[in-house]
Batch of 2 targets.
Target 1
Amino acid sequence: MIKPANRETIEEAAGLIREGRLVAFPTETVYGLGADATSGRAVAAVFAAKDRPEFNPLIVHVATAADAERLVRFDDRARRLAAAFWPGALTLVLPRTTACPVSLLAGAGLDTLAVRVPDQPTAQALLRAAGCPIAAPSANRSGEVSPTAAHHVARSLGDAVALILDDGPTRIGVESTVLDLSGRGSAILRHGGVTEEEMAAVIGPLGEAADDGAPKSPGMLSRHYATRIPLRMMATDVRPGEALLAFGPRPLGGACITANLSEAGDLGEAARNLFAMMRELDRPDCAGIAVMPVPDEGLGRAINDRLRRAAHG
Ligand code: TXA
Ligand code: MG
């Protein structure tokens, strides 16, 4: 059931979380499907609701960096990044502390844990009211694009959630950046709301995840964020029957339906619009979706990454 987020409904949601139930809530990136991270049973229900493979670990959300330090071991780089970007769209993968109360299932049995402090008033209020870390993947079925509005969650997960807190469309629109600092290097496992350029300004140049076959971030399976109809990138023309996902002031002509990520060519606006427009154009009466080029810099890297995954296969 969708309810507008306010003091009462947030209190209700916190009670449900403490009882081990699932609550969908907004963050600044996308809506999350939340559960008490310390309860193996609640976390198992998240995997079941999403139909998510249990080898794919969840992000654990906390209200403050101090709360995060109880769950994972910070080094100097992690502290500097947390100081610069938390609350915000950066997820840090760090070694679990020995006393870490988070269920092993949430971390898919790994000795690392992904943690983040969300920058969204409802998310913050919920974390404080619940009083426990909240494990929350994006609130969609595995393989679908992430929800940026409450009704996306309702359509995807329906009865599996006890309550959906509605606080309007999300501000950033793509998921958080996942940065692995558990080893000696630093590896971007997923491009997202905090850009590589912004992080590099704080800790210097970052490495990419080594592509050695073994998925370090198991969530980055290639066929992810799929649309039902084929999607092709870098389109310079529109083929018969295609829908167009445009970018910039001069959309290509000839599409059966057009959505423009940003007429002004603004990457922040494009990220905000991306998932809702992918859903809008994913219509069985269109032959496919042609996507105009989006610059591969800043937030454009997260946008192109999601489009590439949707285009795959
Ligand atoms: O913006 C976001 O990050 C949203 C909101 C709700 O916070 N959450 C989200 O969660 O996108 P999810 O589960 O859809 O994506 C989490 C990603 C996955 O790619 C997962 O494999 C990776 O983080 N991940 C989680 N724990 C990890 C770990 N210990 N090591 C490596 N990757 C991890
Ligand atoms: Mg997801």
Target 2
Amino acid sequence: MKEICSFSLEELKIWMEQNGEKPFRAAQVFDWIYAKDALHFDAMTNMSKTLRDKLAQQFSFPILKLLKTQESEDLETFKYLWELPDHKRVESVLILSGDRRTVCISCQVGCPARCAFCASGKEGLLRNLSAAEIVEQVLHINRQLKAKGERVSHLVFMGMGEPMENYDAVVKAIQIFHAEEGFGISQRRITVSTVGVVEGIHKLAKEELKVNLVLSLHAPNQHIRKKIIPYARKYPFEEVLMAMDAYAKETKRDITYEYTLMAGINDRPEHAAELAALLSRQQCTVNLIPYNPVDGLNLQRPKRETIEGFRGVLEQAGINTTWRYTKGKDIAAACGQLALVKEHS
Ligand code: SAH
């Protein structure tokens, strides 16, 4: 069976033509799924019964099953646990912040990057998600929001997985998120976060859709980075930074670096000074994320004064910083806490 949410509008038009239907039927299907929230083909009443039956025979939809929703105490973060057709599981997070409704999407089951501080890669990569499995996370959350007169406004590929290692499905999903007939979310409101896969960064820069790209830097030099990010061995510091510069030039987007602060590892004043010297030549933002605890890892979040001091050094050097106020920690929905959820748990 094919997955309807893995089809771009163009692809579905071609499918219609190949099946003896008028191409405009594709837009109708999109309208039913993405605007009218139909959850089965039989609801698509402006199409013939024959076509509806054919679609139902050939396409599986919906493919994600919602197993559980958890909400944080402050009611600003919601975590969704989905079951995939092969019974594997992934999570997404919805973050409410002012008018923003941001969905943090997973793109893989597990993660190949295995960063020392992150729960997602603890058991490596199990498999890639299809475009439909990515798209449906947003589809179902958007559906719930619409019932309250709201809708998803921003998307971040910061859930489980490394987007550059599931490149084609991620780009296809982005096309559907962006398409007017899909979710109509502007490119500027879609953010991809990468551990630093150099060829992926260059490839993304050439895509028609120019999304925001952030790099998980987490260290002021290759020596420290290599210790906490295995991928740094394959993609050295300087090459990753050059790829980010090239992305910024090509897309005219600002560069953002993520820096997860871990006590005694990358949070010292000399690390801040080294980072400041490295980045002061460019227009960029450093997003400081205090480490969120992950079971079984012997790492600590720095003290508040340490984080403030680190931030001060960067600001003094004229570097924009944001300090991500960690949301959703009480439901393990914060950065790096999305782990493989076992079938028995
Ligand atoms: N694979 C992508 C996206 C995944 S995670 C990437 O590496 O960018 C999104 C962000 O959360 C990354 O910057 C990641 O390094 C960070 N992160 C992972 N574990 C964390 C933890 N325990 N505490 C704080 N941030 C963490």
